[in-house]
User: What shape does this take?
Amino acid sequence: MSDTTYTIKQIADIAGVTTRTIRYYDQIDLLKPADIRVNGYRYYDRSSLLRLQQIMFFRELDLPLEDIRSIVNRPDFDLIDALKKHRITLQKQQTRLQRLLRTLDQTIDSLTGTGEMSEKDYFAGFDQSQYEEEVRARWGNTYQTTQSQQKWASYSPQQQEEIKAQSGQLIMRMVGSDPSASPEDAAIQQAVGEYFDYLNRYFYTCDLEFFRGLADMWVSDPRFAVNYERVRPGGAAFVREAVHHYCDTH
Amino acid sequence: MSDTTYTIKQIADIAGVTTRTIRYYDQIDLLKPADIRVNGYRYYDRSSLLRLQQIMFFRELDLPLEDIRSIVNRPDFDLIDALKKHRITLQKQQTRLQRLLRTLDQTIDSLTGTGEMSEKDYFAGFDQSQYEEEVRARWGNTYQTTQSQQKWASYSPQQQEEIKAQSGQLIMRMVGSDPSASPEDAAIQQAVGEYFDYLNRYFYTCDLEFFRGLADMWVSDPRFAVNYERVRPGGAAFVREAVHHYCDTH
DNA sequence: CTTGACATTAACGTTACGTTAAGGTGTAAG
DNA sequence: CTTACACCTTAACGTAACGTTAATGTCAAG
Assistant: This one.
């Protein structure tokens, strides 16, 4: 029976990690050497290797080392429960990542210009936004889900083109071109007022509070935000401030 | 025109972060105060707020602050390219997370005992393992993908039951019950040898090198690993060492 | 005996802040 | 005018899991 012993580098290479990792595991009492000789060298044996391989398995699952220590130290540890809890953590991460990827794709699309959002999508966005729940919670039934879409569909193609052009011009004016301008400047506020009227005329029956909420959404939902960011960096936040000021003073 | 200024707490509350965050952003030159008065207090203005909101947008996308600094500092920064690269990072994370979740589910299932892997799945696992590519790369066509499945299907239900029972007993014997035992102990090696014969008789035509590779897979693929872990923590790694020793000495 | 690969400890760097600690400032109420 | 109390400041340590030097000691081979 060969009494297999490993130096720190040997066991590290087998496990596919660096010697620093092995020393660190020693330091935090996760994997102690089987033997330390007079020269101060760490020596490991077969059971060390088995233990290390167990550690690697759980590490691959992104479990924190402290949890792993509990798992490998105490045989009576409730492993199943720990794994289930960990599963929930990973699940949340995944859900968040999916959301981020959607947001990112939309942002890239809009910045690239290829996926320019049509007016139809634009207003459909209001209705089917990922923030719909939030909007509903705030305004309840005063806000008709399909109101804007129905209204939009009732226009002739020609009318739709005209309305789109108006929207584009108003947005440009609301964002402005001067980075040093203030959202409270008269010209900006004028444009905001016109946009408010524009919304009421062609899409919603919307009061000032609802208008304010929309502006918040334009910032937090990238599908809208990019329309302003494209005009000027920081454009979305700028318009939000402008709308807030408008609502404060009317 | 109200010259809006904010104290550090005010701007932090608006952005939904702590004052520590704002101070940190000052420290790393990401967001400098608009003004520092004689009392040493930081004061921010509207443009600070807009900039901060831009920062928050990109932070939400998990972009590192250093990248964000480049984005908000230099208007000529290639934002689209940066976002596309970032997308790849997130995509990789997501793919990995999906894999981890699968592994975790399988591990939990097996530990719970509800999802006990049937023999059919067990050997189907060999064929359709996520490591199939790896296995193929190592043994090429000497390994017939469907060989084990066909062989298994050719047995009568009664025969299958007997074979399953044999497998269970052999696994128990290979893993052993003594945590201080060595994989090289005679009893263990005897069981390993019987398992090798068992595989050859009922499933594969498999040589020692292939047997060694299988043992590696039992450790790295949790669907197999848990069968050994259930017998005893560290069981999978133990069996691998035992099989390796067996192959070394035959 | 030298060379080169390997071993050791110590200590700082990483990311994006959280968390004290010790003390200064602003403002409103008594 | 004092006293609360909320707010501000800097400084410094803590986090997770190592990576990366730096300075130094040890072992095996030629």
Q: What stands out?
A: Chain A touches chain B through 49 residues (CB under 8 Å). Residues 114-146 of chain A have pLDDT under 50 and may be disordered. Chain A has three domains: 5-73, 78-116, 117-248. Residues 79-112 of chain A form the longest helix (34 residues).
